Amino acid sequence: MKNFLGFIAILVSNSIFACGFYPFGEEIRYSFLNPSNFNYYSYSEFNYSYNTFYPNENGVYPKGSIDENEKLWIKYCHDKVSVEAIRSVLYDFKEQDINEKASNEMLQYLYKTKNIEAINYLKFAKTCEFFNGIYEDPWERREGATMPKRQNLIDKAIAVSNKTKDNEIKLRYTFLAIRLAYYNYDFEKIKLLYDTVFKTQKKKDILNYWSLYFRTFAETDKALANFYEAQVFVKAPDKRFMISQSFNSKIPLEEVLKYATTNEERANVYFLSGIKKSDQALFCLEQIYRYNPKFEGLSFLLLREINKIEDWVFTPYYSLFNPAISKFNDWDQVKSNSIQDILNRVENDRTYAHKVFQFVKNVNLKKINDPILWKIGKSYLSFITRNNQNCLNEIATLEKKITKKDSLYNQIQIIKALALTANQEKGKAVILEEVKPILLKNQKHKKFLFAIGRELEYKQNFTDAAFLYSKLDGAAAEYGDHYEYNIAVWKNKKSKSSYRDFYSDYFDYIDASYTPEQVINMVEEVESKSKNLDSFSKWKKSYVKNQIPRLYDLIGTKYIRQNKLELAALYFAKLDSKKLASYTDCLWEKPNCTGTDKYNVNPFFVLKYTPTFIKQEKLFKLNKRSITEHLILYLKKASNPKEENRDYYYFLVANAYYNMTHKGNSWMMRRYYSSYIDDDPFEDEKEYNESNLAQKYYLLSLKNAKTHQFKALCLRMIGRCEKNKLEYQYPNNYENRIENYDNFLLSKNRYYQDLKSKYKDDYEILMSDCSSFEEYFKARR
């Protein structure tokens, strides 16, 4: 039943996320210290990752390497047999294949040397393979958990082991008995066999640690079980993933350590404890260094700790997301998700990074097994703690010791590029000449591109930052195993937590975050007439170069948001050239206003969800430029004291501004999507939701109106704008539930109250039926 319930849980989880994408885990984690550049493949299942609960599907031994069991067989055959022959017998042969006629090199050697005990062992091991597993009852009644046939094999293995003269074959039979006993749930047998045969061994090999693996599951003393698990974890790479799941981190370390008799065993306990920690593990690093500094696990744990610090510091610092993996078990400790709270935690984690740096700095490199890793770690921790110059000094030394063909060379170049960029003065930062070739070499590494861009943005070089963000659209989807989740997603500092509070596209980001002038700087740099552009500049500008029309439109749209109509019209006019993309390619354009669709109508004369009530004398093609130019024209006419139809033109202007809100038919004058996230970081967000400009001009139309019917219509429209404002200020959502919401809005709408008190006979007509608008508008004169 557990499996069935697990299936249901997964199904529900998938249903939750099926309706949309929200980045998490490895998709948001920032890491520039790539574990695959270092020689810790057998520990790769424990690389710091959101996916650490997955075993390594490719095994724990690098391709082409020889595992410990294979080494034992090679030694047993006196180096006369190839590993390929051994593998063939161990993994491919069946019991009947083991005979004198076999052409296999290992079998030929055993038969030639008349090693019948080894041959019989191999045959017996093959008969046991079927029983080395738990065959579950789907209802988990555990009936049939033990099998008589398996018990017979256990008894036979023990009996043969006792008679066997060859000590290694004797141990192999005992191991088979222990493994069969595990699957037969005979834990007492496991204890007896291990404690009497393997425990007293002075020189332990993989058979001992494989047997100890099963012995841990038979141990009822939790502290002792933890001790055994730590030893197996270090000595038996292929058992690490499973044994790590059993290690109980809640058991005090002092209780576990009392079973250790050597410094190596103590170091092993601290190592597995450190591997299991999702929070700070510096104490474990210090203790391993104290007890066994040459242990490769010490270097791996340092690598893992730096990868953790990267996540804690760089994931929030660059993307403004919380770290991909919480270092707290209690979610309440990280539930505060405001951007400022996230960045405050970053500074605390930089302080911890400095403590790790001090530890690394004081380590005697002659005592540890991988000094290059520690030197790189030292330089990188300097960068993390904002000691950029020290980082660069360390890298300068490393560059003399690492050849350019070594993958580690590119590793330190990535760190160097980040440090060089961050080391510049605010307001004067550029993409340095030394950084350019590093960017080109790593142009498919999206998070690296974004991080350099973000550093430039933080230094107020918005132009180059945007160019680098634009390159994310063209970068390939993959960048090596470490960058399997090679995407960059990020937030705006003004963002508030919601389901769509992030960006993955440069255009959407500069749309929300950049000023018109900052976008103009991008366009001007692309359009600057440089005769001899270097390869980097061509690469940097290549994507934006084809987006100039779209950026002209964006500049104009941003000026609309600022209500700078002349500047908006200037940039919309640049789109008329046939050399540039047409509106149908990347912009918005309406046909002549003859359509019936609610968006294919003229914003000056038609209101969304309202029957046509204003006659349009002259048709004109609708696009951003024409609407902006007509808005300028109508404003000029309305503001002219000599114009007898000022009320009319103010009304048309108000209609246009109303239609440019989210309630109107021309919201695309201000936005590229009709709705974004809640509380979008756009400068005109209030205007887009509250219709303040529309209300302003309806009021001016009212002020210039001549008849009571038209004044009543103006009040009706002013009240509609007020309703939009009240809905935005008092949302009827889960946080602010308001009973009788419509009545609440009506009671607060002073303009509807004015309409009711001043034009009592018209109130019911105008409020209940929009078709009456035509009659009231015609009564303007």
From TrEMBL:
It comes from the Bacteria. This is Lipoprotein. It comes from Flavobacterium chungbukense. The lineage of its organism: Bacteria, Pseudomonadati, Bacteroidota, Flavobacteriia, Flavobacteriales.
